[in-house]
Amino acid sequence: MLIMAEENKLFDVIVGIDFGTTFSGFSCEVIPEKKEPPKPETANTTKAKKKGNYAPELLLKKTSSAMYFKKDEKKIFEFGDKAEKANEDYKYPETKTEPKTEPKTEITTGTEAHTNSNVEPDVANNTEDKTESNPGDLVRRTKLLLDRTIKNHPDLPARLTLVHAVSRYLKKIRRNIHIEIETKYGHDPKLLKYKYYITVPASWSKQSRNIMRDAAISSKLVEKHNVDTQLEIIDEPVAAAVYAESKNTDIKFKKGDRYMICDAGGETVNLAVFEKDTIEGQKSLKEITFGAVTPSVSSLLDALFEELLEKRLPEWSEKGTSQPEDTQASTEVDGQKIKKYKPRDHVLNIYHMTLKENIGQDSIDIIENSLEKINEIIKATHKDIENNPKIFTPEEIRTEMFYPVVEIILKTIKKQIEIQKGIQRTEQDNQPDERKLKAIFITGGLGQSKYLQDKIKEKFGEEVEDNNIIGVEEGIMAVMKGAVLIHSNPIEISQKIHRRTYGIRLRPPQKKPPGSNGKTDRSNSLIESEKNVEENDYENDKKEKEKNRFHVYIRKNDPVIDNTWITKKMYWKAETLKVISLCAYNGDGEPPTHPKEEDIDTVITLDTGFSINKKDNSSSLEILILKMSFDIDIIDIKGSISNLEFKYPRVEDLTGEKNTLPFIEINPAPFSKFQKIFPFLRRTSKA
Length: 687
Hints:
Elements: E1 2-3, E2 13-18, E3 23-30, H1 43-53, E4 63-64, E5 67-69, E6 76-79, H2 81-91, E7 137-139, H3 162-185, E8 194-200, H4 206-218, H5 227-230, E9 231-235, H6 236-247, E10 258-264, E11 269-279, E12 282-292, H7 297-312, E13 330-333, E14 336-339, H8 343-355, H9 364-381, H10 394-421, E15 439-443, H11 450-460, E16 469-471, H12 478-488, E17 491-495, E18 501-505, H13 535-541, H14 544-547, E19 551-554, E20 566-572, E21 579-585, E22 600-607, E23 622-630, E24 634-641, E25 644-647, E26 651-652, E27 660-661, E28 664-665, H15 672-677
Parallel strand pairs: 2-8, 8-9, 10-15, 12-17, 15-16, 22-27
Antiparallel strand pairs: 1-17, 2-3, 3-4, 5-6, 5-7, 10-11, 11-12, 13-14, 18-19, 18-21, 20-23, 21-22, 23-24, 24-25, 24-26, 25-28
Helix pairs in contact: 1-3, 3-4, 6-12, 7-10, 8-9
InterPro entries: ATPase_NBD
Protein name: Actin-like ATPase domain-containing protein
Organism: Phycomyces blakesleeanus
C-alpha cells in the first residue's frame, strides 16, 4: 500500500489531523506555489475568531478533545478546553469566578456577514448566555468508542451517534484550518483544494475507519463524491515513524534495520516496531509488531487517583456517610435551583481537567499548580483539622501515580522487544532474531517527560545500537506533522501484520463460561490421528474445559499473507457441536489456553448443524475440517465433513451484535432446491 496522493499538483493545502483521545490538533502546509506574505487581519477574520470557533492551541496539539453539548441538543456549545470549563461552570457554579452574565452579541450568519472574509460561520456560534442553569453533557474520550480493543470506555449521550459526535469536532477543526489559511497566507480558504490525512490507531478496524471517513464527509472536510481523492486514513505509528526519521537524519538506516516507535500519549501508549525495506527503489517499511499498554494509561491513572483519594479521605468514598450536609444541598443560580455535587465528585472533575494532563510534567511547580484547586476543596471541607494533613503534595502524586505507570510502560516495551526478537528473519531460520534495535523514538505528550525518557534509556540502552533512545523534538506533534510529511515523502508499507489473534472455541459464546487450566495446543490439528477414534476419546473432549479451549488460527503480529489457508481438524457430532465461535484476542504474546469471556471478543458464530449421509444411520463421530484465510478484518471460511463440502459468507470483524452464519453447500447435489421443499428427496439424513 502506497501512502501518498498520486498527483501532488491536485492540491493547494496539505493537512494532517490528529483527533486524539485526550488532545487534538492539526498541521497544515500550503504548497510553495501558493504561499504569499501574511496579510493584515481583517475585521471579519477577527470577528470569526471570537465566535467560539477559534482555538490556536490546535496547532500545538494542546486543545482538549472534549465537547460540551447542551441538554437535548446536538450542536456543540463549546469544544476543546472551553468545553471542560463550561462543564465546570455549570456543575459547580459556586466556584465560578468570572461574571455570571455575558451580553449577547448579535451575529449575522450567511455570506452577508463575510463579504471580506471567507471563513464560514458555524451553525453554533456560541454567543448565547453561558450561565443558563440547564446543564448539558461533557463528551470526553470519544475516540475510545472506536477502538474495539478497549473494553471500558465512556458512553455517548443517547441523542448522539459516533459519526455525529466526531463530525462536530472535525467541523471545529475545519473552521480553524480556514482561519489559519486566511490569517497566515492571505488566501480565500474556500477557493483552495485540500488534501487531508487523518491519523488513527493501528488497531482500528475497517468499520472504525469508515466511521471516521463518514464523519469527515459530514463535517464537510471532504466531499462525498471526491472522498477517495481528498482523504486518506493512515496509521498513527506510521505517521510518527516518518516524523521521527525526519528529525533524526544523523541515524543512517539500511535495509533490515529495525526501530521502535513509543507513542506515549496522555490516554494511551502505543508501541510499534518497523523494519526498513525497499521495493524497486521505493522507500518502504515492514510492520513487525504492534502493542499497547493495557489497560490504558488513562484508566490506570484514574484507578490510582481514586485509590489515593479513598485512602486519604475515606469519608468521601461512595459508601461514606460523613460528607458535610451543605455540600449536598442545592444552590440557586439565575433564579433556578441546581444540586451541588459532593466534594469527591468535584475533586474528580478538577483532576480530569488539570492534574491528569500534567501528571508527567517534569516541573514540580506545574503539578503543584494543578493540585491547588483540589487542595482548596479539601481544606474547605476539613477546616477543623489543624495543618490539614489530608491535602496532596506533588511528590506524593508522582510517587503514587506517575512512577507506577512508568513501570508498566517499561514492562510493555520489554515485551515488544522480546516479541520482535522471536520473529525470524526468514522462514528457514529457526533461531530467534537477536538483532538489536537501531533506535527507539519516543513521541506523544507523556513521551516528553524527561523522567520517562531517562527510565527507558536506563532500562533498554543495551538493547539498542549506540544507545539511540531519543525523545523526538516536538514529539507531541509527531503524528499530525508526520501525516503532512507523508504527502511529500511517500512511503510504501511492504508488509502488514495482523492486529489480533484469531481462533475458535467449540461452543457458543457465554457470559460466564467455566474456566479451567490446561496447556496450549500448538499443533495445527486438534487431533493427532484419525485412526482408532473411540467413543471414550470424544467423551473426554466433551468436558467444559475442552469446549472453552481457544484453538488459535492466526496470531497477532503474524504477517498478512494473501490466499493462505490454515486448516484445523476436530471431532464433530450432530447433537453436541451445533455451533462454533470464532473469537479474537487483543493481548500481546501467547493467548490464554482457556480465556475468560472478558479476555476475548466473539467475532461471529458459525452454524455447524450439518446433515450428512450415514448408510447405517449410526451416530458415530465425524472429522470436521475447517479452513480459514485471514486478511486484516476480513476472514474467509470453508470446510468439509464426510461427503459435504461447504463455505460461509465472508466474515468482517465488526463490533456490535453477533449473528450465527449459515453454511452454504458447495456443489450441491442435483435437485437440491426440491430437496428443501420435499424432505423425502433429500440425499442426506441427520446423523
